[in-house]
Amino acid sequence: MDALSDWLSAQNLSIAEKDGRGRCLTALKPFRPGQVVLRVSPYVAVLESQATVCDFCSKIQELSLKRCSYCKLARYCSTECQRSAWKGGHAAECGILTALRKQQRVPPPSLQLMLRALLKRARQRSKGEPVEPWDQPELIEGLETHRADLSQERLVQLSQMAALLSSFTPKECFASVEEIVGLLAAMSCNAHTICDPEVRTVGKGIFPVIAMANHSCTPNAVLLFEGTMGVLRCTAEVAPGEELCISYVDLAAPAVVRKRELQAGYYFDCRCPRCEAATAPGGSGEDATLGGFPCSACRDGATVPVEQPATSSMRTCQLCGHQAEYSSQEAAATSAGAMAEEASALRASGDAGEGMRKCQAALGLVERTKCSTAGGAVRMKVNDELMSCCLHAQDWSSARNACRAALPAYLVAYKVHEGPLLGLQYYTLGKIEWYLGNVSAAVGALREACRVLSVTHGEGHRLVCDVRQLLSEAEASLRHDQAAENAESRLDN
Ligand SMILES: [Zn+2]
Ligand SMILES: [Zn+2]
Ligand SMILES: [Zn+2]
Ligand SMILES: [Zn+2]
Description:
The chain is mostly helical. The protein has 16 helices and 14 strands.
């Protein structure tokens, strides 16, 4: 591990053990918001079939990628990449995948990822391939498995996957099926979802060094990707000795939901200041806004959400303390969420118009039953889907209204940590306002987009350049309008 420590300290980072938090990725020097902390390629990655990324060089290729003619799974940007990948290990993997494809047994992406990792590890060991400090097979073996926390059900599931995997993986790639169970457990809580700059999922990868960054609900760093390259960037000022944290879950979800997901997927109870304040009496009230129901007794209050499955449908207002039954609101919120998902499926199948109607019905339900506050997560989910449907159907003014209606929840969720999703929401709003000719509203939204995205994506990112370009056009147009207005008022005088 010495090579890793040396490499990390050259990046001004170290691994420290902290009480109750285990291994932590720690800064050795101050980092500024927007600054890159780490840029590393994955140990292995598997991309979704619609992803436009080369399997070898990880470059984004918008135009057609060449598909491997044997396995029909791997895709490359050029013949050179295809050749290099073949020599670099695809030959072995391709033989296995081609045979499985012929038997119509193509494994799911999670098992393809694992197969790739096992083949790579064996290759590194047998050939003594030069191994970079961040790419050592020992790092994969050292990933936290949470073995003791796994339920019996989960263990059975992992054992079945391991047996399947061992049936087509060369025997020299693993010690025992038991070893694969451990590796699968490690991967399920350490693999990262790879996204494109708009934060749409494109695949999954294992980044053992980035996996050392712990979770925080008020993170000071964000993980985004360039192709499959993982880029960890600071989103806040970081002092030397401070731990670098990212968020493992969606921060737009209320604390009760975040805590549940963290417990289920990563086996810990988040007791961070944000989670504590969100649920405590007299706390931030964040959970009441995001996940509660408007209080039936007072004007501004909302109920405090409870752990699920709930033992009772009684809820307490965070402001006036009034207690009442909210089971019908609970059911309505669930239906509204499900309707947004149906709308998303309709949009994907090309029927955005029907999707819009579904979302409008869901919003009607939300209004009638008062099952979400003005900044509530349910309302945000429905409005976001409505916006997507409207954009597909080219109904710009309805798209703008839905985008604006979703914003209050974004502002509550990302009040402390301004994540990429907040910046992207402002960018979408700015583009629609500009398209509708609302120049001053477009300038306002695009300035916010620029401010947030230049931190999360970095100043020179293509997306940030696009935002700046549109912003400068909108600003020029605004100056022009104002000059014309001034000239007019001089004439009037
Ligand atoms: Zn390539
Ligand atoms: Zn192939
Ligand atoms: Zn937390
Ligand atoms: Zn109340």
